[in-house]
Amino acid sequence: MAAGGALCGSREGSAGLWNWNQTWYTNTPRFTWCFERTVVAWIPCAYLWICFPFYYLYLQHKTKGYIRMSHVFKAKMVLGFILVILCFSNVFFILWEISQGIPRAPAFFISPAVVGITMILAVFLTQAERMKGIQSSGILLIYWLLSFMAAVVMFSSKVQHALERGFLEDHFHHVTTYLYVSLVLGELVLFCLVDHPPFFSKAVNSPNQCPEASTSFLSKITYWWFSGLVWKGCQRSLKVDDLWPVRKEDSSEEIVSWAERVWKKCHSRTQQKVGSATFKKGQKSETGIAEAEETEVLLQSEHSQSRPLLKAFWSMFGTYFLLSTVCLVICDVFLFSIPKLLSLFLEFIEDQEAPSWHGYFYAFTMFLLACLQTLFEQRYMYMCLVLGLRLKTAVTGLVYRKILVMSSASRKAATVGEIVNLVSVDVQKLMDLIIYFNGTWLAPIRIIICFVFLWQLLGPSALTSIAVFLFLLPLNFMITKKRSQFQETQMKHKDERAKLTNAILSDIKVIKLYGWEKTFTEKVLGIRKQELQALKRSQILFSASLASFHSSTFLTAFVMFAVYTLVDNTHVLDAQKAFVSLTLINILNSAHSFLPFSINAAVQAKVSLKRLAAFLNLEELNPESSSRNTSDCVQASITIRNGTFCWSKETSPCLRRIDLTVPQGSLLAVVGQVGAGKSSLLSALLGELEKMDGCMIMKDTAAYVPQQAWIQNASVEDNILFGKEMNETWFNRVIDACALQPDLESFPAGRKSEIGEKGINISGGQKQRVNLARAVYQKASIYLLDDPLSAVDAHVGQHIFEHVLGPNGLLKDKQTRVLVTHTINILPQVDNIVFLVDGTISEIGSYQELLQRNGAFAEFLHSHITAEEQAGTGFPALGDTKGTITSRSGLSQRKLFSDNLVRSSAMGRETIPASQDSTTAAATKGRLMKEEKTQHSRVNTSIYAAYLKATGLPLCVYTILLFTCQQAVSFSRGYWLSMWTDDPVHNRTQQHTELRVGVFGALGVIQALGRFASTAAVLLGGVLASHKLFLQLLRNVARSPMVFFEQTPIGNLLNRFSREMDAIDSVIPDKLKSLLGFLFNLLEIYLVIIVATPRAAMAIVPLTVLYAAFQHFYVITSCQLRRIEAASRSPIYSHISETFQGSSVIRAHKAQERFILKSNFLVDENQRICFPGAVADRWLATNLEFLSNGIVLFAALFAAVGRTHLSPGTAGFSISYALQITGVLNWMVRSWTEIENNIVSVERVREYLRTPKEAPWTLNGKLQGQVWLTEGRIEFRNYSLRYRPNLELALKHVNLTINGQEKIGITGRTGAGKSTLAVGLLRLVEAAEGAILIDGLDIAQLGLHDLRTKITVIPQDPVLFSGSLRMNLDPLNQHTDADIWTALELTQLKNFVADLPDQLEYKCTDQGENLSTGQKQLVCLARALLRKAKILILDEATAAVDLETDLQIQSTLRTQFKDSTVLTIAHRINTVMDCDRILVLENGRVAEFDTLEHLIAQKGPFYRLMEESGLA
Fold this sequence. Notes:
With 1512 residues, the protein is α/β, with parallel strands linked by helices. Helix content is 62%, strand content 8%. The protein has 48 helices and 24 strands. The protein has a six-stranded mixed beta sheet with strand order 6-7-8-4-9-10, sandwiched between helices.
């Protein structure tokens, strides 16, 4: 006050710096003249001077280009200069007055001088912002807002002064004040506007840029800049192009390169530390100190693996995160100021003497603080989400780049699934941590502050609430623990079900062939029943824990109030104590529930960080293991000197003492037994192996063809070009040479046809040829080819060797070729042969040289040829070969060559012929798979109806009733409390306290029970609906024909069974429960406000309409964004898995950069959609919270207006309820959106109701008691078949009769219709015309299962399911163990099975992975023997076994099926030589059908096939 006196002087009427009577205890409040001139005027100045140094520093670092002088800027400057002149004219006028002898206090000239200097600073900052390209300034806008508020205070006091004493007393000051106010208002308006975009900006100037950068400060903080997109989303369905490209600072290019730099820095530091620690450890152990330290260092390194990663993330994002934390702390300050204001407001209602403007003041302050809290909280959330997206980009980028440099050892340590989990699941955990981390320390502080405030209100009774928490904690802990057990059980069953479903869908063809659908669906349903049982129990416990959570507010209040009033009857519970306590308890509860979330998020993120660090620390390829030398001084293309290589440092060497020189342009063949190290040699040349010793030099570029063909999910053309420019003539030459021309012609869109993931829709041979074409197209200097001929047919292999690899092929000029091969007959044509034995080079030289040496190679050749002879291929004797192979005519060589190729084409499999293969599928433009449909408009109400119908109508009505009752009880409880607080006080005590406490408690307990019952009803209804929908889905899919499975990607189907069912199981019921809970809660709050202040209904109605509008706009746009986002995620994961599988090819072709760019693009596209999704949530929350704050404001205003006839209890009841509305509105829309997003799952699951189904499985009345199929006679009558309605006929007018017990061989070129015949016989596809009769019965008249169980098929690929061996042999459980053992004995498997740990109960893993291919083939054979059908179809079942087993199988089939009709579909001519008759197909027609002798005599198509195979 003394300071005030010194500044302001002791002029009459100044009343010093502050005067309560003048400012507060009056009906016309005003500040003292001194306070106005100093404190009010200087607040904006102090704000700007405090911000200035920080803001100026920020401006120096942030350059966005500069802005040209615009009209807005000029206006700002003009007004600024006028204001400066005005302030200083004030100063000079006062100084003139003093010089005239008029007494003026120092504040008179100090204040305008300070304001004037600050105005100069503001003008300077305006110019600085223009030079740095800031279009809209928050700092200056707030300064002008504060200045305007200060000016308004001065203005109002001047107006009051003028009214009291007349305007003429001090007209200079009056005029300057009015001018000052209007100029400051002008500046404020100008600063709300946005300036032009800056010039020379580094930001990309795309027309569709994110509007945030170029929008005003007010629009930024309220997210109104997002409204344009929301509006667009309502007008039409959003596409990716409608969204803004990723901002430069969020792009992969910026963030990932930054992350790489930081990670390398942190990582290398740690490596140095670990290195020195290991070094010290070595010294210590030498001196004989116990090795305890060793383990310590190891443990530390295990633990500290994640530390450098954390450091890296912190150094990248730490500052931004701390800024967001400041926002949250400020938000908390406002959060706790609201209960204080409520307390003052209720005091005001009670005190009838208080001036009425106090009420309005409290109401508006409460509104203002709530709005500020909203802005800071939403800014915090926004910053966290942006940070989360950046972190996701950084992690995905680091993981992707790691994949490209992983060594072979690391690749064994990590699977594709785990890597995809890192960038999906683990990143999500880290993103969650960003939002929840501050809860770990802020929640406890919130809880402590609540207790302090409660202590002030209720004294020691406040501590009783701790007892409530201590009581609820173990209860909730027990419930959670029990529930997690049920969830584990449920997850176990879910995994089991997913595994079985996956097996069924992968091998649906086999299941249909054998007619096993019913058995397998029953198995799935059995598992599903157990899963739902666990889910049901879990949901009941969940209801209990929710009820206890929601009752905790009531319990805490009840205990506190009861203790407070009953301990001492002079303790009066008035409105202020009761309702402010309730508001505080609500804050306490939210903090208390947030804490476990935060801790859980932190724990999970720690695990994820560890996993991520472990992956990023995996061993990388050593760049020195292969040196590429481009100089021409070295003559040899490849040189290895004394090379010893191993797969990883821990394993023993796989190649030892390799000395190899490959001259430029030569063709080198690498041969040897399986496991000799042939592929390892190529890997060593590529630098994929760890070099332990020796040196290796490779000249120039290399191209690599792996043994397992690697295909990208792209068009055929893109697969072949592999990033190179298109050269039409070269492309066509490559296509011709690789024998791809006929395939391309058969593809629906030719070279533009899309190949599915992992080449799912093309055959093995086609895959391998595309692979080869890719390598050839690259025009590299060195070609490393890993057995490219193994997967193709004989004549194709011959073509490829002649046109690509051989002496006259495309690669004959200067290209060095290293060919690993099993195809012996091409060896005479190669320049050199390397023969490997157990990882060492046994012999090296040309074919002739090696044969003459008669060493290991000659022996190997001999054994191969003997095996061929045994198989009866008519191969010339070895002696013969030795002498004649080089002298024979070309024909002879070709004969040899092609014949052997047939043998080696073990994988040469024929799927449904290429011409009508699944490739021709759905879309005419080469799109194979049917796209996942994304919903665009709002979900149809019929879907909701379908879901509710599945739940059951009575249950729905019952649920609504329960919710209504429990909300009515809740209302009664609050009303009862308000009546209690209004009880009159006699002699400092209240009457009927025990009654009040008792009824309050009883109502609370009833409500808790109601809450439990209503929640349980919704959740159990969900389980019911889920059961019905799953049953529908399973039945519909099982009844679908084969065509459906060929057109529908298995991923889509699995998605329906896993993700969509998961949503129906748990997400939809959970969100529905939330929606209903919040909806009834909202209705209760409205009811309370309207009962207390009926006039508030006038405000509530328009606000609710606005709320509905916001919700409508948000839900439509948000749902679309989510759907687009989900679709943009899978390409990232597919790309990762594709890269992981093909990393060796990518590295060999030096295409890493291109793949990294594609990964960046995919991640950015995903972020482009995630960002608007995150902003949409903020836009909604900010707008809804402003609306809610409006409702609180009106509730308070009407209470203040009507306080004469309103009790404090009712007012407290109304406003404390209104304060809860923010959360309720927000969560209600969230729940609604979640339901809208997830109800699509119901639609997708029901989608297959409408797809075509196959014929009935069994027909009643047919075959009842009849014995059918005794003979096995098959008759085709004018039979034609097409795969799909829009395709050509695959079989054309086939007429033939096959007698019972006849053995028929079916042969023909690829695509002739061999497999199609079997497809028709088993009715996997129905006839287009004509009929097939078996034993005189038209098969179209039979049930599918009746037909299929009578015919046995041994398919080309042996199929086993995960389960016991017995289940695999006899899924229908029709045979005794003795029968099974007999079958095993016949297939040479008896000893093998007898030696297994559990014999017949031995568990086969998925796809029978734990058996060899040969053993699987034998198990399938045993299965066929058990069925002992009259008709057997063999689809070249012996392609996967060695020659010896092949012979055994053939003899078993001959003896066991001598009474059956056997159809053998042959891919190799020699397999059908001993058949009774041979059927030759050409283009779906019967070309020839006769005995072998006749066919050879006729010299027709069959003879030509024999010639090609070298048998004629």
